[in-house]
Amino acid sequence: MKSLVVMLENAADRPRAELDGRTPLAVARCPAAARLASEGMSGVLGKAYGRGPSSPEARLAEFGGLDEDSVRFTARGPLEAASMDVDLDGFTHAYRGDFVTLDNGVLRDGRLQRMTLQETAQLAEAVQARFDPTRVRLHALAPARVAALVRAPGEDLARGSAPWRMEREEVIDLPARGSEIMAEMVEKSAQALARHPINDVRVDLGENPANAIWLWGGGPLARLAPPPLRLHVLTQSAMAAGFARLLGAGVEPLLDPWTAAQPSDVVDADAMRRRLAACDRLVVYVEAPDAFLRGPAAEKVHLLERIDVLLLQPLIDVFRRVKQRRFLLLSVDAAGADELDPAIPQPVALWGSHLEPDATAHWDENACRDGALSGLSREAVMSLLMGD
Fold first, then answer.
1. Is residue 107 part of a domain?
2. Which of these, 226, 289, 297, 312, could form a disulfide with 16 (CB 3.0-4.6 Å)?
């Protein structure tokens, strides 16, 4: 059985007042996603392996075929670090680090805009000067984002929460146990960046200054045990690319579906058929654009409709020619929910050979609640995906 798994970050959302209390996914015209839901089985997935609300890296590990222990301990920071061509020897943990704006000890902006990779590298260099490079090492990963390697053998470090979930919170509210490195990074980066020329220019231009680094998604650096299937990953996410590299799986860049002009710019049908022929499972992981978190609801609706036309429909066109097939579509929360921030329902649809369709007609948070996959165990969903 060939399987194709498409994971869309932050497709699901809360009801928006500007959409008359509906979610962007409920409003968007997405015939390809609707076809997957109406011709297959749908639902809202529960938590992964007894964890709290599932992180995207846990979902990636689950549907990438990893075992329970690997899913439980998979973390964003180590995966993103693994995507880079840097030496990880001597370090035990890794974090994702985002440049943020602090204002009198309050996290005012957790997702900075309009920063180049070169500016990110210069700011990271200024902060690096405050740390022993054999204990903490920073690498520019993407605009306004770094990978932070940490040497802390034997320590159980806190994972940390995504900064945009902590906006308007005082940074002194960091959890005490295991968060010393997170607090130290905030303090020392704030000192290093207080009067950095790049921030002077940002303020002059009306932009929020990048005056601190916020660490989150932390976890131990470890090689993952490969799953018992041939896996290939197509993505523009550093996290998903690092996941594939750690497994020794194939990985290729996904052309940005949010800015593409036409379907062929995203899905090359012939290349997709070759990938499917060479693997048991193809995972397409799509990192969310900033507009999904910051933009108006109408813009998110438009982008959801674009991804349906530019990615989902071409994938269906290719995959429907496969005789024994299962196509899984799911939304994942890019930051993962926590106890203080109730999880947004993440819809899922499973389409393919020899499945009994349920009564779901649309792929969105409410329509999928009563689908046949809701309430099923992780093992049951995985069995369906495998065709057992």
1. yes
2. 297
**At which residue do the structure tokens 């052309």 appear?**
255
Q: For residue range 309-343, what is the model confidence (pLDDT) as tens digits?
A: 999 999 999 998 888 899 999 999 987 655 445 57
pLDDT (mean) for 31-58: 82
> Rounded distance, CA 75 to CA 277, Å?
30
Positions of E strands within the chain: 2-9, 41-44, 93-103, 106-109, 136-142, 145-150, 212-220, 231-235, 250-253, 281-286, 325-332, 347-352
Residue 47 is predicted with a pLDDT of 62
Do 292 and 311 lie in one domain? The reply is yes
In a domain, residue 27? The reply is: yes
Residue 231's φ and ψ, nearest 5 degrees, are: -115, 140
Instruction: Write out pLDDT tens, residues 94-106.
Output: 999 999 999 988 9
Contact 75, 218 (CB under 8 A): yes
**Structural domain total, the chain:** 2
Report CA 109 to chain centroid distance, whole Å.
Answer: 20
- Bridge partners (DSSP) of residue 136 are 150
